[in-house]
What we know:
Blueprint: E1 5-9, H1 13-24, E2 28-32, H2 36-55, H3 61-69, E3 71-73, H4 77-81, E4 86-89, H5 95-108, E5 114-117, H6 124-128, E6 137-142, E7 151-156, H7 162-174, E8 178-183, H8 190-206, H9 212-221
Parallel strand pairs: 1-2, 1-4, 2-3, 4-5, 5-6, 7-8
Antiparallel strand pairs: 6-7
Helix pairs in contact: 1-2, 2-3
Amino acid sequence: MRVGRVAVVGAGTMGHGIAYAAALGGCRVALTDSRADALARAMERIRELVAGGVKRGNLKEAEGSEVVQRLRADAQLGAAVTGAEVVIEAVVEDLAVKRRLFADLQDAAPRDALLATNTSSLSIAAIAQALRDPGRVAGMHFFNPVHAMRLVEVVTHERSDPGVVARAVAFARQLGKEPIVVKDSPGFASSRLGVALGLEAMRMLERGVATAEDIDKAMELG
């Protein structure tokens, strides 16, 4: 079943990117943030992304207008998540902040809404502990820029509801993404691979395999 309504909490770089991607995917999206100035900047940035897509020929002008019409900004969390089928958190990477937010979301959002966190570094299980039913929460780690990067890490934890995980995977696919399912562990999959590459690059430099500049070129162009 396709998702029709999405709420994104947090209007920073990742938040507005996720909101834009969801609107591109045909969803009606409410973007919310406690900072009015952040909301205004986010909506302006989304309009710029739409205009860029039209200019490059990736969107027809009418399609761009429809994307903008599917988006709205709302400073009130309760109003933003009303009727949402998926709620994605993209606030600051602070465990205490995220836990307080999810404690509020469990009552503010519809009882059957998928609650997802976009964290790239924090434990999904630790965030989910803020809820009476931790199984409602899954990780959905998008990458920047969201509209261009296809990978989404769907992160499970020991109390994950399999149905919630399946819904997160299906929603990612609805947005044209390629989801992978990974267990809750430091760095998930992508960051751990990045660390491994970085360590190998340092070993190559230490052993004189190539200069730092040429190792960088190999990573960028290879």
